[in-house]
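Data availability (excerpt). The following record was deposited with the supplementary files.
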Amino acid sequence: MLISMPVFAEDEEVKGEAADTGEEIFLETQLNFIEPSQENPEDEDIIQLPHEKTLAEKLKEVYNIEIERTDVAIPLSNEITTMHFERGPLKSFHPWVAFQSHGRYEFNESDDDDFLYKIGVINVNLDGVLKSGEEDFRIMLNPTPQSQRPFMQNFIQDAYIATNRIPHHRIILGNTRPAVGYEGSQSPYTLPFINRSQISRNFGTVRKFGLRVVGNYDFIDYDLGALSSDTFFSSFFPGVEFDGWVNFKPLAKTDGKYGKLVTGGGITAGKRHSDFFVAGAYAGYEYKKFTTRFEWAHSNGSNGLTGLTTNKAAGFYTTVAYKITPKVQVLFRYDEFDPNTDIAHNKSREYTTGINYFIKGQAVKVILNYIFCQNQHRPDSHKILVGTQFLL
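Predicted structure:
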């Protein structure tokens, strides 16, 4: 999803989704034998090799492809750009590109109306699986210019290698998006709104270098990381940070009869010039076409996208969504955040109404958001955001 689209520029990760877990579609070449002809017995010695699809045929298949799932991000280019190797260190290699853009029309009580259009992010993803089939890697590059930080600090997003040799586990070493909150660690390609929630924008959505252990069982999953507290390669190992998140799935064995329930929580703690600590909790429920989410977080200092701060801050959001059709989803979010709880009348509230149109799942989609921003410390504002996403 787009973020800024503040978050767009930071993203990246299709964590837990087909493109990120190293799941690949491996093609097997087989020989098709022609049935012997009654009129020409010599045909029984003829072997026909499988037809190799032309680029035009592959593009036509991509054009006609239908993607029903919207909980994962699957690029359209899997069939065309995935390369498989019989020799060498790689089993497969898949380059693909993510493009997100948005237009924003903002009208405030004290300012003139303003319309802005910008490219949220262009991510170049290089995914590979090593010959063993148990290890994979990703290099994600972001050539989109940024005004917040030098170009090279934002150029390398993901750069990691991972192994899946331990059952139910994935060990990741490198630069990744750690588990700081539920939505804060979510891929921008699957976000329900253009902007992340305020707690996610302030506490999470950054990448850090270190080691992560990701576990996934029927009733529980977790993401535990020991990382450098540096962000965006701005300094060399200024301190150590622990990011941990655990989810419980009590309805995992009911085959969806009663829906899908996830509850969880986690902490982020470390030191970077000063100590910081963030705690959060989450609850989400899905039943058929209906989805609802709630997440809360409180910090005594934080080290997220907005930078290191010693402020005590708190916030929460709640989202309700409904799929009118498999391709059309309507949703609403209430989002509240206090960036400094020691200061009175400092909260920001956002009321967001949205429509998502999934043309081809998350690979091609259009988003429309209306946001009413109610602030205790500055004038209220209204925004209309229109976003597009292409995963190619």
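Summary of structural features: The chain has one domain: 8-391.
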